[in-house]
Design brief:
With 188 residues, the chain is mainly α. Helices cover 51% and strands 10% of the residues. The strands form two sheets. It has a three-stranded antiparallel β-sheet with strand order 3-4-5, with no helix packed on it. It has a two-stranded antiparallel sheet with strand order 1-2. It binds iron/sulfur cluster (SF4).
Length: 188
């Protein structure tokens, strides 16, 4: 079994990524968890950009997430918007300033350099292997998948070739289809 070796590699890569990222984000006065929250909000769809979803994704407490979001709002990296049909729901939108920071920090420059040294084939193999590992982690531990529409059991394509979500019963715009979703359920 390679479990320990895989874990050791993952831990070392995670450690290198955090160190690299920390050096960069210090310039913006951010903590790693604040950058993670901002990154999540830049890649999630409109059903998933709420404080509750950020809490679930990051595995933080409600209070810690709230503090994180307040810092990001204060720095004008995100804005809060009330839902049009349900004023009790707040959506969190990354501002252009927030997107600029993400562009600078994610992926980190050292990680980009490392990936660019790998051939296209190797990059594909690594992507597939990590995807398998992530899927197994989620499935075997019954965790929320936070996947994208094409791998979701609610994803439908109607007769006009438009994408439709069978769960929320709404059309999914093209730009939303590749974003991660807190309602995602993998096709079994
Ligand atoms: S199809 Fe699945 S992933 Fe896409 S919006 Fe609906 S629930 Fe979310």
């Amino acid at each position: 079994m390679e479990t320990h070796q895989i874990y050791n590699y993952m831990e070392r890569i995670n450690n290198l990524l955090r160190t690299d990222s920390r050096q960069k984000i210090v310039e913006y006065g951010l903590q790693p968890i604040q950058l993670e929250a901002l990154h999540y909000l830049s890649i999630c769809n409109k059903y998933s950009d709420t404080p509750k979803a950020v809490t679930e994704y990051l595995g933080q407490t409600k209070g810690t997430t709230s503090q994180t979001l307040n810092v990001l709002e204060k720095k004008k990296y995100l804005i809060k918007q009330s839902d049009e049909s349900d004023k009790r729901v707040t959506h969190l939108k990354v501002t252009s300033l927030g997107l600029e920071i993400l562009e600078e920090c994610i992926p980190t420059p050292k990680f980009i350099n490392a990936c660019e040294q790998l051939s296209e084939n190797t990059q594909t193999e690594v992507t597939e292997a990590l995807n398998k590992l992530l899927s197994s982690f989620i499935k075997t531990n019954d965790l929320q998948s936070f996947g994208v529409c094409h791998s979701c059991r609610f994803h439908q394509v109607n007769k006009d070739n438009d994408y439709f979500c069978g769960l929320v019963k709404e059309s999914i715009p093209m730009g939303e289809i590749t974003k991660i979703c807190r309602e995602h359920e993998a096709i079994s």
